[in-house]
Amino acid sequence: MARASFDNSQSSESAAEPDVSGAEQTRRSVLLGALATTACLGCSTQAGAGEDPPGSDERPQKGDLLVFSEGDQEGKLITAADLKVGAPPVHAWPKDPTSAVVRSASRLNEILIIKLDPADLDEKTRARAVDGIIAYSAICSHAGCPVTAWVKSDVGDKEVFKCMCHNSEFDPRAGAQVVFGPAPRRLAALPLALADGSLSVAGNFMGKVGGTQPG
């Protein structure tokens, strides 16, 4: 009898005990879902971190500062003191002074900056220069190759910009007009200004940027 009474007691207690298995399963599912959501958000953040920031592929804007695009000073502001008369041009990117975004996501934004004797510049070129400092697109107007050389011209005794892809030459003293080679037009010019000693953009590119045929 005692044994039977003990068995009945156990059965009653089991029946009265709440069933927590369903609640535990629900809570576990919620926690796993939250963890999965957090993990996905982390993945999105990491993917976004590898993307170019907004504005980095926009053309130079008035007021943009100019920074070195290569070499030991890459990313640093270009000042008038960094440029010497007749020295090879420096390559630059425009930089938004408000967001600090460097507009380097498009190769069409790379710029050549050079300082020449103001007396050697034609009237139009001198008008958009700053103390003899002038700027042009670094992309050849022929096939869109980069203009990288500063050499003596094949048709004169002056040094000129030269695209080494197809030997087009441009005279920066005369608005980067073509003096040799197959390029169909001059390099696009970029007006300059000074902002606290640093070079800045004074207006949009003057002329078409880029080549006229595939490289």
- How many β-strand runs? 11
Beta-strand portion reads: 15-25%
**End-to-end separation:** 101 Å
Which descriptor suits the 3D outline?
Answer: globular
Structural class: alpha+beta
Total number of helices: 3
Helix content: 10-25%
- Poorly predicted sequence stretches spanning 5 or more consecutive residues: 1-18, 34-47
Give a description of the structure.
- The protein has 215 residues and is an alpha+beta fold.
- It has helices at residues 2-16, 21-49, 123-127; strands spanning 65-68, 90-95, 111-115, 133-137, 149-152, 159-162, 169-171, 177-180, 189-190, 192-195, 198-201.
- A 5-stranded antiparallel β-sheet has the order 1-2-3-4-9, with no helix packed on it. A 4-stranded antiparallel β-sheet has the order 5-6-7-8, with no helix packed on it. The protein has a two-stranded antiparallel sheet with strand order 10-11.
- The longest helix is centred in the N-terminal third of the chain and has 29 residues, at 21-49.
Topology:
Layout: H1 2-16, H2 21-49, E1 65-68, E2 90-95, E3 111-115, H3 123-127, E4 133-137, E5 149-152, E6 159-162, E7 169-171, E8 177-180, E9 189-190, E10 192-195, E11 198-201
Antiparallel strand pairs: 1-2, 2-3, 3-4, 4-9, 5-6, 6-7, 7-8, 10-11
